């Protein structure tokens, strides 16, 4: 019997990537023991609703949980919750982990799906009562009742999470201000055209958007446990608030990888196209991993994607690697964001585009933006036109394209314009 069969597989991190990895292992026919460890007390659950409907009371807590205890038992997976792996050691035959509670877990194979942690606002007053962020179910449980009663909400950060929470707060009747330090919303993820459209859409719904707004202090009442009363900006103005939500990005959790001496960079644990780390043995997947761009039409180089589809697909690749299958991760990235009644759907990566085609009516919030590089379709961003998004997602997945010159005619469905791409792509 091999060490893998004796000690089995240890998966550290019970988020989307972790649950996807153990599921994929079983789908591949792997029957060895599996231990899945999560530091939250809750069993693995869906995170996307936390910044959307869950805060508005539209989802019951139990509905977010992926699987009940019987599911894990049926698959032969031991689920450990509410305990954190604090140290790891391994060699070519396996190793062991020690948890915060003092438990020792041995393994023959190791997967790191440790996720990421929210960046904290590095300013005076960030510890005041009424300053929140959302990453976990417990975070959302703390924020939800405050959001429903808040009158003036300031969201620091104009990324997806911040805008989703801002839209929810606005729908609940609060006066909402979004403070974004850069010159546009969603700047790291989308085209400038979509940034502008999203900004205008939120403003139409009554949300105040402050671009170039640098939060330098959170203002509050005096004394221990003082309550927040506003956010001071670099220009000296103070935006009133009885609730502040911080959404300024996330930092990959790489501490355990560093313990093992794995190659780690500021943006994550470095992996190859098979989700294998620098030791050639451990795999890593999800928000903690930095790997080759899986999208062959995207800009080459290390890429860390934060999305449910990415975590799921990369975790499946990691599971295949552990099971001895030589499967490269090459999925087309796709994303979505529900910001109140505004739904964004994206496929591909628009970075490096030299042309953007506008299809539809931007002001009416029913449009698609098709990005091209060297006349080759590389991405779509759709608002209110799911058929366009699906057509491009399928085209990209099959290595096809859509000629730019015909894409503006909304009377012709995009699926009818899909054609074979030329042999050479810009990557």
TrEMBL record:
Q: Name one Pfam family in it.
A: Reductase_C
Q: Could you tell me which SUPFAM superfamilies the record lists for this protein?
A: FAD/NAD(P)-binding domain, FAD/NAD-linked reductases, dimerisation (C-terminal) domain
Cofactor(s) the protein requires to work = FAD
Occurrences of domain FAD/NAD(P)-binding (ranges):
10-315
Indicate yes or no for the key word Amino-acid biosynthesis.
Answer: no
Q: Which UniProt keywords apply?
A: FAD, Flavoprotein, Oxidoreductase
Q: Where is the Reductase C-terminal domain?
A: 334-417
Query: By what name is this protein known?
Result: FAD-dependent oxidoreductase
Which organism is this entry from? Terrabacter carboxydivorans
Q: What is the lineage of its organism?
A: Bacteria, Bacillati, Actinomycetota, Actinomycetes, Micrococcales
């Amino acid at each position: 019997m091999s060490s893998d069969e004796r000690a089995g597989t240890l998966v550290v991190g019970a988020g989307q990537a972790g649950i996807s990895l153990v599921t994929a292992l079983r789908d591949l026919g792997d029957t060895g023991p599996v231990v899945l460890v999560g530091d939250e007390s809750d069993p693995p659950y869906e995170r996307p609703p936390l910044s959307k409907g869950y805060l508005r009371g539209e989802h019951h807590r139990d509905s977010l949980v992926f699987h009940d205890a019987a599911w894990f038992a049926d698959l032969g997976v031991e689920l450990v919750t509410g305990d954190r792996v604090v140290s790891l050691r391994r060699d070519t035959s396996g190793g062991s982990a020690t948890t915060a509670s003092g438990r020792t877990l041995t393994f023959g194979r190791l997967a790191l799906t440790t996720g990421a942690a929210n960046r904290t606002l590095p300013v005076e007053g960030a510890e005041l009562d009424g300053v929140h962020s959302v990453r976990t179910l417990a975070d959302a449980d703390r924020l939800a009742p405050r959001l429903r009663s808040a009158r003036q909400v300031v969201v620091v950060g104009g990324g997806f999470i911040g805008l989703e929470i801002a839209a929810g707060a606005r729908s609940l009747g609060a006066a909402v201000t979004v403070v974004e330090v850069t010159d546009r919303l969603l700047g790291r993820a989308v085209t400038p055209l979509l940034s502008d459209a999203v900004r205008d859409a939120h403003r139409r719904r009554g949300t105040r958007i402050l671009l170039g707004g640098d939060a330098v202090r959170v203002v509050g009442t005096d004394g221990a446990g003082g309550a927040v009363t506003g956010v001071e900006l670099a220009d000296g103005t103070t935006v009133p608030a009885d609730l502040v939500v911080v959404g300024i990005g996330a930092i990959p959790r790489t501490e355990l990888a560093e313990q093992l001496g794995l190659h780690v960079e500021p943006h994550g644990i470095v992996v190859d196209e098979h989700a294998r780390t620098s030791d050639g043995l451990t795999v890593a997947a999800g928000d903690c991993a930095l790997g080759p761009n899986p999208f062959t039409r995207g800009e080459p180089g290390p890429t860390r994607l934060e999305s449910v589809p990415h975590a799921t697909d990369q975790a499946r690749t990691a599971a295949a690697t552990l099971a001895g299958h030589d499967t490269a991760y090459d999925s087309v990235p796709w994303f979505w964001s529900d910001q109140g009644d505004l739904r964004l759907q994206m496929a591909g990566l628009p970075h490096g585009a030299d042309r953007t085609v506008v299809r539809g009516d931007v002001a009416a919030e029913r449009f698609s933006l098709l990005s091209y590089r060297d006349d080759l379709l590389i991405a779509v961003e759709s608002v209110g036109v799911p058929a366009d998004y699906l057509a491009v997602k399928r085209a990209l997945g099959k290595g096809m394209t859509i000629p730019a010159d015909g894409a503006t005619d909304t009377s012709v469905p995009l699926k009818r314009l899909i054609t074979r791409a030329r042999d050479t792509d810009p990557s």
